[in-house]
Amino acid sequence: MIHFKNVSKQYYSDLALDNVTFSIEKGDFVFLIGPTGSGKTTIFRLIIRDLLPSEGVIEIGDINVNKLPGKKIRQLRRNVGVVFQDLKLLTDRTVGENVMLPLQFSGVSEKDAKIRAEEVLTSVGLESAFSKFPLQLSGGERQRVAIARALVFDPEVILADEPTGNLDFETSRQILDLLESINKQGTTIFMATHNDRIIDSTKKRVIVLEKGKLKDDRRSREEKKHVSHEESSSKTHEKNAEEKNVEVKAHEAKHEKEEIKKEDKNEKSEDKISLESIADK
Ligand code: ADP
Ligand code: MG
After folding, report:
1. Could you tell me the pLDDT band of residue 280, with boundaries at 50, 70 and 90?
2. Is any atom of ligand 1 closer than 6 Å to the C-beta of 37?
3. Domain count, the chain
């Protein structure tokens, strides 16, 4: 789903990422950790084409992000929801308006945007916050608003940049539970964090950055304790089955792409455009 191949990013004289290679599969939940300045936010900005790499290739699905023409960047960003480190909530707009804005910018009517905003706010447990202002909410609630806003286009991927940064453990755990429930519905999640306790409370994969280099790519400690030989051998079987599945999926996807091409002419701004179709159009 997300592939970084020998990616480097230089800001002026600063090498923020140094020859980074990794892949994240569709439906995965992966943590990205590393000290401040190690390149986590840079990775997220590269994924949504907010930045271009100095070297290397970034792919999402079948899309080569580096080569994506300008007019398709908007479509890419609808399929990759971002929860920014600084949230980027407008304090002079209500919670509901904050969530409606990206929809309205892409041409959705006010009425439909309101319905969708209510829907996603309910899905993150904030149905009663629609008319409040962000500063009237707790840190955890604000984080949920940012997650709701990232969900408005029903994205295939969510990038969450330190969403538990300033929260206590209990609230952090609740945010993680929310992201896990979104992941269970099929959304791929890539989450940067500093919070070791949060990571250790799950069994998820952890990609470790240090000064722009990929230092480690491992399961969290919990998982290491639990993985037995038996499980590792069943993983191999699973993998073979998965490879076959990918072939079938590729065939299905080709068919789907052809269908989408046919329908392309009738595209409305509200229509969901999948990552697959972006690659092909
Ligand atoms: P993290 O999110 O892990 O804290 P960043 O990706 O924000 O790390 O930053 C990685 C490195 O790149 C740091 O050394 C930082 O100072 C530098 N950097 C980040 N953004 C910029 C920028 N816009 N201009 C110049 N240097 C930057
Ligand atoms: Mg950062």
Report:
1. low
2. yes
3. 2
